[in-house]
Amino acid sequence: MAERSLLLLKPDVIHRSLVGTIIARIEARNFKIVALKMFDLTRETLDEHYAHIVAKHFYPEIVSYMTMGPVVGIIVEGKDVVAGMRQLCGATNPAAAEMGTLRADYSNNIGFNIIHGSDTPENAEIEILRFFDADEVCSYERKIIA
Ligand code: UDP
Ligand code: MG
């Protein structure tokens, strides 16, 4: 199976009407979108997804950020898509991210860093199972070189 990554456009992207802009940037990189939906995160799912930061002092702010509205979940497929999407997202702190990355171009605040991208192919598969049912993922051939 092709490598996949799980992306979340965080709630401020919807609030700021940047959904189309961010998706256009992902498409411009030529990654193949195989699933896409808008939904609310439950506290239980968020705690699971962010288990590695649940004990951090800033976690309550993350909870209020990630539950201030719906997120857009996207599964993208492609060669080295996990590293490629992390490159496109930029550093966790937008203020330190390279210009031209999504986080630098659309944020200046680590508390609102607009997008999640899986950090390894293995974690991507775990995250895909966390947020998507199998019948929500499309299978199709692209008529262009991926
Ligand atoms: N985060 C934060 N302050 C920090 C570290 C992380 O607000 O000092 C938030 C930020 O929204 C980040 C999320 O916690 O995206 C998850 O952290 P992680 O280290 O997994 O960063 P990422 O993989 O998103 O770059
Ligand atoms: Mg992470």
Task: Put the structure in a nutshell.
This protein has 146 residues and is an alpha+beta fold. The chain is 38% helix and 16% strand.
- For the biggest β-sheet, the strand order reads 2-3-1-4
Number of helices: 7
Uncertain runs are none
Mean of residue pLDDT? 97
CATH architecture label name = 2-Layer Sandwich
Report the top-level CATH class. Alpha Beta
- Within CATH, the superfamily carries the name Nucleoside diphosphate kinase-like domain
CATH topology: Alpha-Beta Plaits
Rounded to the nearest angstrom, the radius of gyration is 15 Å
Beta-strand percentage range: 15-25%
Number of strands: 4
Return the string of H and E elements: EHHEHHEHHEH
Supply the number of structural domains: 1
List the ions, cofactors and other small molecules found in this model: uridine-5'-diphosphate, magnesium ion
Task: Note the main attributes of this structure.
Alpha-Beta Plaits; 146 residues; binds uridine-5'-diphosphate; binds magnesium ion; 4-stranded antiparallel β-sheet; alpha+beta; 7 helices; globular
